[in-house]
Amino acid sequence: MAPLPPGATVGIIGGGQLGRMLAMAAARLGYRTIVLEPQADCPAAQVANRQIVGAYDDAYALAELARASAVVTYEFENVPVEAVNELVADVPVLPPPAALEAAQDRLVEKNFLTGLGLATAPYRAVDGMDDLKAGLAAFGGAGILKTRRFGYDGKGQARIAPDRPGSAEAAWAELGGRPLILEGVVDFRAEISIVAARGADGGLAAYDPAANVHRDGILRSSTVPAGISDKVGGSARAAAFAILDALFYVGVIGVEFFVTRDGRLLVNEIAPRVHNSGHWTEAACAVSQFEQHIRAVCGLPLGDTARHSDCVMENLIGDEVARAPALLAEPGLVLHLYGKAEARPGRKMGHFTKLGSRQSAVGNRT
Ligand code: AMP
Asked: Domains of the chain (ranges plus CATH)?
């Protein structure tokens, strides 16, 4: 693919904060952006050249997006695959729709990952109470029941434990009737993620892994370096590269892992897009994950992923956004707010990255 010339338009499906930061990175490289999103004046549209206000599967809106864009990308993984497959006839869509298919359904995703020889939490498809009982028996009575599709930020999940009588029935009552997956509970020492990219020429690049803390299923903080051994970091990078190559991927991907207490690395999930646990790259790297993604989908060379500082990124969730003025007074702190008018509970309103001097040469401590 020849690089898109400056002034070309990048179409972005989805208008949240990830789309916003992609649009800002695109603008820095001289591109125009057009956002497809049903909610008017969404975070991405506030900084894009244009918004098409429409549903992600609205045929007219998609046709207009294809007409107006030189390439189309997306900022979330629940874009309807059928809609994207229709676009492909008229305009390049990157990352390729196969990546959406692999990531949208937790069962398909786990089968894809284990097919590549990567380890995951133990899992079973659950389509009825009998499957659930059989799965729980196999996993020692404990598990996490999840909807196969449309789960995010811990939504669509219920924990089942032997010391919580009735939790299996309660989980089934809450989630049953939809295709489900039961996962064994992983006894993890840490959750890490890696943000990596594959360019149009097949070149690969990865940022340093981050150690992530989640609360109520929502990412709270990402710390780099992640405090893992070089061996674990290298395995995470190799896993991300194997996933990118298998999908003939072009763009940035986020891959989340558990590091178990006995030192194994299990892939938790893949996100075929820029990732919340990579927001630190905008403050601690010369080329952020957002610019990296725009470079990849526009056919430009991938950028340098080296990290110039150690850092901690924290999300500002709900009314935590009120901390913004105080945070701005702190030296070495980079704040990013998303332009959302209403600070509802659980809503990601912004994030900040606190920079420190770089302690280690290779990014991973042993
Ligand atoms: P997910 O949406 O699947 O990434 O789940 C959100 C969070 O729930 C993860 O980041 C973990 O903290 C926790 N979690 C999910 N699945 C498991 C599992 N199989 N074992 C232990 N913790 C889990």
From this structure: 9-93 (3.40.50.20), 122-183 (3.30.1490.20), 188-356 (3.30.470.20)
